[in-house]
Amino acid sequence: MIDPAAMTASPFPEQALPDWRRAVLKVGSSLLAADGGGLSPRHALGLAQFVSANVLAGREVVIVSSGAVAAGRAILPRVEAAGAAMAARQALAALGQAQLIGLWQRFFERPVAQVLLTHDDLRNRRRYLNARATLNELLRLGALPVVNENDTVSVDELKLGDNDNLAATVAALVDADVLFIATDIDGLYSADPRRDASAQPIPQVQELTADVLAMAGGSGSSAGTGGMRTKLEAASKAARLGIETILFNGRNGDVVRALAQGRLHGTRLHASQSREAARKYWLRHAPVEPGVIWIDDGAVQAMRGKGASLLPGGITGADGEFRRGDMVEIRCRPGAGGGEASVARGVTQYAASDIRRIAGRHSRDIEAALGYNYGGNVVHRDDLVLV
């Protein structure tokens, strides 16, 4: 049965969604918390149907979901909602994670995978690459990743609003085209509509200026602490990476159903440039580590002519002591590739010491040579730029 409140018309005019192939959907605690404690499927069902409709259409979705602390509080209600000790809130998060994943799994026939991240995981380049490889593999296998901050080991004060910024980082991590943020209001207004009756809806934002950020209000519910400002900060981070952000009311059933049909009643925050252009710019200008990966003429031709990844078979050696996840220059020996020494730069999946051991080998022999492997590419084509 549809909640009559969910049939309320949106004050935001209809507009088309941007084309997308892969997206991150961020769902906050206010959409999952039950009035009496714990989690409720009331709004999650419609969002799950949105995900399913797009997966059936051949798209990919990663969910970033809050709600673990709210779920844990239903199991141990004696822990106070406000001012709880850090250890107690971490215990609630640990108790609630299983409940949160169980809530999402009930809506999908495909397997749901829990992925817990911390900001340290995303700042450390090697762990960042591990997380990206795991998420990409889960999507390839047809699973639905559900990401949450690993609050049980976080050393910072728990702020569920941080999941807005986490969602923007995950969108960059998986090379998403768009970031959907489901919230409990209709979109961005010129002022907080709950306090200012004259607040006007803002359907589109071309650039996130200081004036736009000033429109953000505070938190709207007791379940989460993320207000509109954290959502705009996340949108700003995504925009710099070429990712558009969509703000919409996850409590409005009509809005969510229209979203599954490519129609938005909410706010569209445009990216400053294309996703590809933003990534290529970063690859071209990020500082490189000391060291070089040396390649042969065949690898030069494959990378330049076919846009191929760099495989170990085309590598002749490596200088320096760079590590997995470092930005490294890729060169060919004098006389190869038309005599040009510098060919490309990219993020390496293997350390210099590993590359020296697998140089010239077939990708299938990597594990036999090293005892482990991070995939058949030394530098994936999405992680390199020709120079």
From TrEMBL:
GO molecular function, one term: ATP binding
InterPro entries reported in the protein's UniProt record: AceGlu_kinase-like_sf (IPR036393), Asp/Glu/Uridylate_kinase (IPR001048), G5K_ProB (IPR041739), Glu/AcGlu_kinase (IPR001057), Glu_5kinase (IPR011529), Glu_5kinase/COase_Synthase (IPR005715), Glutamate_5-kinase_CS (IPR019797), PUA (IPR002478)
Keyword Nucleotide-binding: yes
EC top class, as a word: transferase
Superkingdom of this protein's organism: Bacteria
Enzyme Commission no: 2.7.2.11
Gene Ontology terms describing biological process: L-proline biosynthetic process
Any one GO cellular component localisation term in the record: cytosol
Keywords tagged on the record: Amino-acid biosynthesis, ATP-binding, Cytoplasm, Kinase, Nucleotide-binding, Proline biosynthesis, Transferase
Locations listed in the record: Cytoplasm
Catalytically driven reaction(s): L-glutamate + ATP = L-glutamyl 5-phosphate + ADP
Pathway: Amino-acid biosynthesis; L-proline biosynthesis; L-glutamate 5-semialdehyde from L-glutamate: step 1/2
Keyword Ion transport annotated: no
Domain PUA: 291-379
Record: residues binding ATP: K26, T183, D184, T225, G226, G227, M228, R229, T230, K231
Protein residues bound to substrate: S66, D151, N163
Family note: Belongs to the glutamate 5-kinase family.
NCBIfam families tied to this protein: proB
Role according to the record: Catalyzes the transfer of a phosphate group to glutamate to form L-glutamate 5-phosphate.
Protein name as it appears in the record: Glutamate 5-kinase
Species name: Stenotrophomonas chelatiphaga
Lineage of the organism: Bacteria, Pseudomonadati, Pseudomonadota, Gammaproteobacteria, Lysobacterales
